[in-house]
Amino acid sequence: MSIITIEELPARLSGGKTLAGLDLGDKTIGVAVSDRTFAFAHPRPVIMRRKFSLDAAELLALLQKENVGAVVLGLPINMDGSEGPRAQKSRAFVRNMAGVSDLPFVLWDERLSTVAAERTLIEMDFSRRKRAGKIDSAAAAFILQGVLDRLQALGVDAWSK
C-alpha cells in the first residue's frame, strides 16, 4: 500500500474498479463510493469504530464488495494550512492500513467538508438526530466528489481504461 497523488489514480482504477472516500472520525468512519463512471459519490453506512483490527476488517470487506481500486482519505488540515493532531491520526490510520492492505491512498484536504455536508443535510430537511447518523458518510461523499470533480477538471480520463 502506498500514498499516491491524484494524478496517479487513473492507473489504479482500470478494470471496473471504483474509488472510495473516507471521513475518519473518533467514533465513526464515514464511507462513500464512486459509481463506475467516476461521476458521482454515493454515501454508504458509517462504520462504528471499536479497535483498529475490527475497523480495518469491516472497512476492507466493504471495499472489496464495492470493487474499490483506491481510497481517498480526508486530511483535516487547519485553516492556516498546518497539520494538527487530527491530521496526524489520519496519517497514522494510513500507515496502519499498510499492514493489512495494498490499496493505495490519496490524502485530500478536507477543510470545511463536514460543514458543507451538514448544510446539505439541513437543506434536505433532516432532523438533528438523523443528521448525526449520516454526517460522516455525507462528509465522505463530499470529499470523494471533490476528487472526482478534480479528476475531470484535470482532464484525467480514468473511466476509459
How much is the radius of gyration in Å? 15 Å
Q: Average pLDDT value?
A: 84
| Number of helical elements | 5
Span between termini: 22 Å
Shape: globular
Strand order of the largest sheet: 3-2-1-4-5
Biggest sheet architecture: 5 strands, mixed
Strand runs, count: 5
The stretches of 5 or more residues where confidence is low (pLDDT under 50) are none
Question: Which class do the helix and strand fractions yield?
Answer: alpha/beta
Helix content: 40-55%
Series of secondary-structure elements, N-terminal to C-terminal: HEEEHEHEHH
Which band does the percent of strand residues land in?
Answer: 15-25%
Function: Could be a nuclease involved in processing of the 5'-end of pre-16S rRNA.
Keywords: Cytoplasm, Hydrolase, Nuclease, Ribosome biogenesis
GO molecular function: hydrolase activity
Enzyme class: hydrolase
Structure in words:
- Residues 17-117 form the YqgF/RNase H-like domain.
- Its EC number is 3.1.-.-.
- Pfam families: RuvX (PF03652).
- One of its GO terms (molecular function) is hydrolase activity.
- The protein has 161 residues and is α/β, with parallel strands linked by helices.
- It contains 5 helices and 5 strands, in the order αβββαβαβαα.
- It has helices spanning 9-12, 52-65, 85-98, 113-123, 128-153; strands at 18-24, 28-34, 41-48, 68-75, 105-109.
- Strands 3-2-1-4-5 form a 5-stranded mixed β-sheet, sandwiched between helices.
- The longest helix is centred in the C-terminal third of the chain and has 26 residues, at 128-153.
